[in-house]
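Hey all, sorry for the wall of text incoming. These are the two entities for the joint prediction.
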Amino acid sequence: MSASIFVTIYPLYFEKYGAVEMMLNFSKKEKIRKLIFVIISTLIVIETLFPIVFAFLASIRPDSELYQGTLIPKSLTLENYMALFRPGSYQQTESRGFSKYILNSAIVALSVSVISMILSSLAAYSVVRIKFKGSGCFLFLLLFSYLFPAIILIAPIYIVLSALNLTDTYQGIILSHSALTIPFSTWLLVGYFKGIPLELDEAAMLDGCSRLGALIRIIMPISLPMVASVGVFSFTLSWDDLIFPLILFSKDSLYTLPLVSFNIIYGEYLKWGQLMAAAIVSSLPPLILYMYAQKYLIGGLTMGAIKR
Amino acid sequence: MKLQQKNDLYGFLLVFPSFIILGLIFFYPLFYTLFLSFYEKLAGGEAKYIGLQNFVKILTSKSFYNSIIVSTMYTVIGVLGKLLIGLSFALFLNEEFKGRRFLRGIIIFPWVIPVFATAMIWYWLFDLQLGPINIILDYLFKTRIQWISPDYALLSIIIVQLWKGIPFFTVCLLAGLQSIPKELYDAAEVDGASSWKKFLYITLPGLKYIIASTSLISGIWTFSEFTAPYMLTRGGPGDKTELIAIHIYKETFSRYDFGYSSAMVICLLPFLLPFILYILRSMGR
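and here's what came out:
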């Protein structure tokens, strides 16, 4: 009797004991794995965010405190941001507040993104659907100009623009930036339009739509997210550019943010808090736009490489 | 035939505006450069034919070689660094763990911050007295580094390049990793392959093409980078960080000798064209 109990219980006990043992072991391994992942994640977060965090901290501290050379803020203030937008008090620029330059940058960047969205949609549609004689050649030239660093051509570009009387105008810089954004924009849209079934525009044209009508009524609504991303890409490229304002603008009233930032850094004297406030403020528009367009742009960037 | 011609014309009309802008700002200047490189052309003046004199001047000037060397170091070290760190980040983010989505969102921040704002922020981080990096170094090691100085300036702009450029590599390589079929790893598992072997024989070959194209494209951009380095150092101290784009900008707009700077562009073509044509060929396929 007792022996039979022993025979039945012992394996059960052993099995249970073994399972617990195993579970203990397993969770220990799992814990170590978890710990390693937490550590690496933390390191990545620090590496990525520390410049932004320090910039933000500097922007919300009074300058007097900053000059004590400490890292942790004791008192907080919005004075740096307010001073930035107050006309007259801003270093370098006697009369204008920062909002003037934000407006300038916005005018240029928005124009570039609108031009780029329209022209590259037309070009991409033509290359993908109409396939005119020479469209292959056009695509080749497009990719070539995308890959070639146009910045080294500033001398002849400057000559062309000054021959056309376009220095010290927004038209000149908008034209230049568009030339930088159109190639990649068209390339993105060519890839996207290729994925849209041909039957869709054929059906529209059977219903009496013209080719352009098919583009506007059928293709554009479907591609809206991609077209908007092209706009975001163009906006940020234009927002970011220092070289063209540097060579084209001599009047302070035309300056865009990168040029103003450059002048602040090498100006008479630096107010760190205001400089960081300026950096944070000028990062916001592209940041917000990218949050939206991220997945499409990344898709486009990696598209060429993965579709093989 | 008639219809075909109409079609061609219509198609060309649609690309025409883009064609004009690119022609005006890119292709005409490119050909004009070829022409100007044999001329002396000062701002406002007429172009004067001087044969190969510009090229002789460039090839005997130390500053041109200097900027080629500086640019090459900046590009090779920078792209290798971005590739290695970006690859490790991508491998890590490809694992299953809690907070992975959050981390993927965080990681693209440096990419999204405008270049000029990045330069402003790092200009502050690098400051000798008040910059956070030096405050931390002082606290931990009782030492401070003058970052924008002859010894450290190139390293400084490479650090900024790494910080800014890692996200692009991480994102591209992560997309590449996710396109590798899971079955390959399962099969290797069955065969008892170690993680290292799996990395060597499945992951790396799977990423081969994307590593090559990302590095090459990033290499071309890095080689001709201007904004961040110029804002941080203006090419200095001396000519320690005078990258090629900074050199061309300075030469062009301090002497206003457009012929000379055009000839410099021609001298750069042997460095750029092979890479561009290689990428074009692989993209066209």
